[in-house]
Amino acid sequence: MISVEFCATMARYNRWQNKGLTSEVEKLDEAAKVQDRGAFFGSILGTMNHLLWGDTIWMSRFDGWKKPRIGIPDSPRFTASWPFYKAARGDADTRIVAWADKLQPEALEGQLAWYSAAKGGMAQMPKWLCIQHFFNHQTHHRGQIHAMLTAAGGTPGDTDLFLMPEVTEWH
Question: Does the pTM exceed 0.85?
Answer without folding.
Answer: yes
